[in-house]
Write a structure and sequence with these properties.
It is a single chain. With about 200 residues, the chain is an alpha/beta fold. The protein has helices spanning about 35-45, 90-110, 125-135, 155-170, 185-200; strands at about 5-10, 25-30, 60-70, 75-80, 110-120, 145, 175-180. It has a seven-stranded mixed β-sheet, sandwiched between helices. The radius of gyration is 16 Å and the shape is globular. The two termini are about 15 Å apart. About 40% of the residues are buried.
Length: about 200
């Protein structure tokens, strides 16, 4: 995908702040620290548009971005960076505040055409399984993406993929994509998969 321009729209801590629905949209979901913000920067070919943090649980709001692309059928698209789940050190009360925000976003956004679910290539956890199942119940067909693939040796990848497949209970025809925000491996394949869904 040719990215012609990308800009940060706004940070939303409540659904009333979500931008109007004007363009097809995709969202990036995943455990805290899985690499959501890094992947967004890699996709948008910008170093610091989405805030990357060493402290898990940093993104506590829905951050929206607008992207202009070279694809004539997707001249402008929107994307959302969602707060990470499953980080134990974030207090339970804070998690209770986030849940309705994420739920409002994922269940009410009519132009949301693609939910990208990020799973650490080194292993899926129960919280990932719960999220995958929950997204399916909401009617989404998540695009499952394994992040930080650079951390696995070539020979470890098949086991990594099988592990993710097993924990999430993926049907045999679903193949998780592997990506690395450091080497940019998988970026174009991911863009293709996202674009295909945005066009439906
Ligand atoms: P929250 O917003 O806290 O939920 O985190 P996040 O999912 O947005 O993760 P973020 O992009 O902030 O990255 C978390 C850490 O993982 C940072 O230290 C990144 O540098 C590192 N990281 C992200 N992507 C990759 C990757 O592809 N490979 C490697 N090796 N490290 C990565
Ligand atoms: Mg983040």
């Amino acid at each position: 995908m040719r990215v012609l321009g990308a800009e940060f729209t706004r940070t939303c801590v409540s659904p009333e702040q979500f931008p109007a629905e004007t363009w097809p949209e995709f969202a990036v979901v995943g455990r805290s620290n899985v690499g959501k913000s890094s992947l967004i920067n890699a996709l948008l070919q910008r170093k610091h548009l989405a805030r990357v943090s060493r402290t898990p649980g940093k993104t506590q709001a829905v951050n929206f971005f607008e992207v202009r692309t070279g694809d004539p059928r997707l001249s402008t698209i929107r994307l959302a960076d969602l707060p990470g789940y499953g980080y134990a050190r974030v207090s339970k009360s804070l998690q209770r505040e986030w849940a309705p925000l994420i739920e409002a976003y994922l269940t009410r956004r009519t132009l949301l055409r693609c939910v990208v679910l990020l799973i650490d290539a080194r292993g899926a956890e129960a919280s990932d399984e719960n999220t995958y199942a929950w997204l399916r119940r909401c009617g989404h067909d998540p695009l499952v993406v394994m992040t930080k693939i650079d951390k696995l040796k070539r020979g470890e990848r098949r086991d990594g993929e099988n592990g993710v497949r097993q924990v999430l209970g993926l049907p045999p025809e679903v193949r998780p994509l592997g990506v690395s925000s450091i080497t940019k491996e998988g970026r174009e394949d991911l863009w293709k998969a996202i674009a295909a869904r945005l066009k439906t």
